[in-house]
Amino acid sequence: MSRNKSESTSALFDEQIINADEIEALLKDEQAQQEWHRYSVIRAALKGDLNSDISLDISERVRVSVSQESNNVVKPGFGGSKSQNKAASRWFQPFAKVAVAASVAVVAVMTVQTYQQPVTPDGSSAEPTLLTSPIGGGREPVSLNRVEPMSQISDQQRRRQVQSYLIDHQQQLMLQQKAEQTEKDEQSEQELNKGN
Amino acid sequence: MITRLYRSILCGAVLFAGTFSVSAQQTSEQAESGADWFNRMAKALTELNFEASLVHVHGDQIEPYQWLQGNDPEIGSTELLIQMNGPDFRILRVNNKVAHFNTSASNYALKSDTITAILPAAFSEPFERLSHSYQVMVGGGARVLGRNAQHIRILSRDNQRYSYALWIDRKHGMPLKMIMMNQSGDVVEQMQLTSLSVRDTAPEITKEISNIEMPPLLKDLRVQSATNYSVGPRWAPRGFKLLSQQSHTLVVDATPVDHYLFSDGLAEYSVYVAELTEGMETDLALSSSHTLFSKRYNNFLVTVVGQVPLAMAQRIAAEVK
Lengths: 196, 321
Fold this sequence. Notes:
heterodimer; A: mainly alpha; 2% strand; rod-shaped; B: alpha+beta; outer membrane lipoprotein receptor (LolB), chain A; Phosphorylase Kinase, domain 1; eleven-stranded antiparallel sheet; 3 helices
């Protein structure tokens, strides 16, 4: 007769007869003992004679699980998932910084090669290297209305022309925003000075 | 009998007058509360502590973002926007410095107190700044993001510009949904929050990000020089003001241009004047969230770029002489 331990415990508890080997096995098994304890608490509760100082000791289990969990320190939550948190906190890890910096350097070189950077007589670049339409290249033309039919070769030229104007407009907006802000700062400074 | 009739007429007149004055009062109240809703949004966008995620749709592109903002008495105001698809791109604002972190270009910082990638900067300012060209209409209530939202519309007074429909959280004032439309009501751009948690204190992460080393502040390296050509814009739609005029070269193809920048507080457009050279396309028009229109004027190429409808861009270009 082969029963698993739970069944044996249950059978024993219900005052069914199980063999000596099984009892022996149960006595050695800590899990079975705990099960027994739970059964007796449940029965007592059902009968209504539960003594109030019988306690289900969960503190031990909490302590164990906490000590296990504390190894995975949870970073301050930004989104729901772990990967989001990981992505959000990637900035703050020095090695990631180096990796990002390296990739920026590579791409920056490519950018300079692709877009001609006008160079001032003193050798420094006249234009700041920046991506002006950073949001997913959001200003992509949706429809290009041709006023007259054009060859495929000029299509590229046209695209380039359109892109260069769109990008320049974005860049001007950003620089303008900065100029406005500076103005605002100056104004508030002046007001402060007046206050003094 | 006569007295009775007289009385009923009088009564009717009083009632009529009453209704009239009530309706007049309602109109003024409505106009007022429209601006109030806008100002509540502006306040939420600068003062609220929140963590949100959103999708931004423009043309055929759909982009998910994470967005959070915190106001801490010690750190000040921080805001973070992270693009979740494609190359890692994030914008971080700490007080009045905005840093752009991009894996495909150099990182740089700007001086600004708003992140303008999704919502126009004007949405964080009082409505008065727009009232010369725009008005606010109050719509009804709606359920947006499982919340009780108030619908408002921002319309240009001349009905010639892009308009905005906004759904604002009645409890916190956060914009939950935004639609930008052209004058015929076609959707040009959309934004929808997909989650929003408003907090009492700044999100934990803002404490960490405020310690991030900011990339170099973008210095205006451009040599500011006066415009070269006698041709320039002679007309601007009502409410648009000239913000700057100077000459520079385009970054991509190094064309020298005269540049004029106009703004009405919400929408901006640029006017470019370039000397016509061989290989330059003269008649271009494209319309999406940004319009581009090019035309030839004598030996010059006039190009108008901006967040204005095509018809307006054409009119502006026609008035460049």
